[in-house]
Design goal:
This protein is an alpha/beta fold. The protein has twelve helices and five strands. Strand 4, helix 10 (155-171) and strand 5 form a beta-alpha-beta unit. Helix 9 runs parallel beside helix 10.
Length: 219
């Protein structure tokens, strides 16, 4: 029987990551506590990330009951690292990681964001060496919607992060899944038919994502 860490929110605060200090809010602590309670198992396929991951019913989309959603709306690399214990404890079979766009909105450099994502991958490999890591690229954004002012003009930063992560994956024999081209229009923006706010995906966008992921899910 798994021991549930009911003190997770207190531990998060003790670590210095309060809602005010790290832009974490009630939703983060609610979902982080739930995920820690649910845990994972050696058969789990974990979708790990921010709102783009949070916003999908992955087990239905992918037709696989072993797929579990560990996305939190608004999460950043630091927040993912903070809640990684509850995921790695069960030694899941696979982790599909996608994060970084919220870090971009905090005006961090491409180098620092890529390094933070790389640190998450490295920690997974050290603490759960039987887990296969799949590193996914950031998706394009579309600022013509005018919704998220903190990512205005950040298109190149996203491309730079992807280039850094792709190089890291190649150097370290990590499976790299380049989502970006499938979602970009001719100008490199998120296709307007796949979003209604310039950042998040509509149903057809998740269908595209599914078709990219299925070979890796089933391998």
């Amino acid at each position: 029987m798994r021991i549930v860490n009911i003190a997770l929110p207190l531990m998060l605060c003790a670590a210095g990551l309060t809602a005010e200090g790290a832009d974490f809010g009630e939703l983060y602590y609610q979902r982080a506590s739930l995920f820690d309670t649910l845990g994972t198992s050696p058969s789990s396929i974990v979708m790990l990330g921010n709102s783009l991951t949070h916003g999908c019913e992955w087990h239905e989309l992918l037709g696989n009951p072993n797929v579990v959603n560990r996305g939190i709306n608004g999460d950043i690399a630091e927040g993912i690292d903070l809640r990684l214990d509850g995921i790695l404890r069960g030694r899941p079979a696979k982790i599909f990681l996608l994060c970084g766009v919220n870090d971009v909105s905090h005006d961090l450099s491409a180098d620092s964001i890529a390094s933070a994502v790389e640190a998450i991958v490295g920690r997974i490999q050290r603490e759960s060496p039987t887990t296969k890591v799949y590193l996914q690229s950031l998706l394009p954004i579309n600022n013509s919607f005018g919704r998220y002012k903190r990512i205005f003009g950040k298109e190149q930063t996203i491309r730079d992060i992807n280039a850094l992560l792709e190089a890291y994956a190649a150097k370290n024999d990590i499976t790299w899944i380049n989502l970006y081209p499938a979602f970009a229009d001719e100008k490199g923006n998120l296709r307007s038919d796949l979003t209604n706010d310039g950042l998040h995906l509509l149903g057809p966008g998740y269908i595209i994502w599914r078709e990219i992921l299925l070979p890796y899910i089933n391998e």
